[in-house]
Amino acid sequence: MAAATVNLPAICLNVGPMLNGNLQSEKIGTGTIMWKARDLYGAGKLDADGYLDMVCAGSPSPGHCNTMGTASTMNALAEALGMALPGSATIPAVYRDRSQAAYRTGLQIVEMVEADRRPSDIMTREAFENAIAANTAIGGSTNAPIHLNAVAKHMGVPLHLDDWDRIGYELPLLVNVQPAGEMLCEEYYRAGGLPAVLAELVGAGRLPHPGALTCNGRTIGDNVAAHGPSWDRATIKAFDAPMKKNAGFLHLTGNLFDSAIMKTSVISAGFRKEFLEDPNDPNAFESKVAVFDGPEDYEKRIDIADIDKRTILVMRYVGPKGYPGAAEVVNMHAPPRLLKQGIQDLPCIGDGRQSGTSGSPSILNATPEAADGGNLALLQDGDRLRVDLNKRRVDMLISDDELKARRGAHEAKGGYHGPPSQTPWQDIFRRESVV
């Protein structure tokens, strides 16, 4: 965002992912393993020491997450935008190749200054559309839309959540990396990294703009041609034999919120069977909700709330106005009594963010958030929602009169009464209109 704002020659170089984690021959992915360990601990299959051993095994070296979390995603999207050298996003932090990439990046920025090649030459509308396509193919984080849209706004490029659905949803998932897959970033790098993924999109004619300029003065199509497709089809799939078809984000609306996103690449077979395979109502379901006012309320009541295997878990008051830093706190799982029955995947909805390492098929970043007067603030335990992915809608199944009465009661109490702002940024969001 800073590079976009000042529009001076700039280039991206990241630290790179950690080495693969391993525990008793099992691949352990940073972040992603935490959610698995939490479920095992909640189900009584892991004690506290075992939990720590499992989580720590996922972080064997310096570097960012070795899964397709937010760090790996945003570094890949910087490369897809053309702001990082081709192939640099996925080099593990401690590999010799990383220092060589740093050296080449230093040489490249000097050439960019001499050529006066600026972010506005690179981060065009076409580049952002390429990044959206790349995000689907890699199974990128749910944080990608809000981050990339923010960069685009600083660059003066119009980009909306509808674009993520329109451009990205019907593309396939090609990268077999946790949390949507099985591998980790070392395999992904050795298999060819992002250039090999983009080669599949170019070969299928599905990279929107192969002619987009990149930081090295070449087009992204030329850069991809120099690398070629992957040799490792276990890690990077061919376009016509993907991990999953139609794997992009859905942009949802309805009477519960105006806008929210859902990552479809992490929808498990079990979740799909339970919620989305009714032959009379495909890709849709209706369920009651359990509502939590932030992570503290969730931790306090998860064991006693009325939750069954089809309950939708809702967390509100955790957006930019409601919670400091719009933190990644919509990381909910089933209560221990359901975990012990093998039930793990419950639908989740929140007006905040979730870790990019999570494998939960959650509906996130709902706006307007509850703290800003959104209808999430009116939702009550036991209410029923209808989620219809085909229609891109989430609706409260209550009458207009009941909704109006709840709105009146909410406003009569003065609306949202949260704690004082805990960060300067939260105060800014509370004082200024959020566009």
TrEMBL record:
The keyword Glycosyltransferase does not apply. Keywords: Iron, Iron-sulfur, Lyase, Metal-binding. Residues 1-223 form the Dihydroxy-acid/6-phosphogluconate dehydratase N-terminal domain. Residues 236-412 form the Dihydroxy-acid/6-phosphogluconate dehydratase C-terminal domain. Coiled coil: none annotated. One of its GO terms (molecular function) is lyase activity. It holds the Pfam family ILVD_EDD_N. Transmembrane segments: none annotated. The keyword rRNA-binding does not apply. PANTHER family: HYPOTHETICAL DIHYDROXY-ACID DEHYDRATASE (EUROFUNG)-RELATED, HYPOTHETICAL DIHYDROXYACID DEHYDRATASE (EUROFUNG)-RELATED. Belongs to the IlvD/Edd family. This is Dihydroxy-acid dehydratase. It comes from Verticillium alfalfae (strain VaMs.102 / ATCC MYA-4576 / FGSC 10136). The lineage of its organism: Eukaryota, Fungi, Dikarya, Ascomycota, Pezizomycotina.
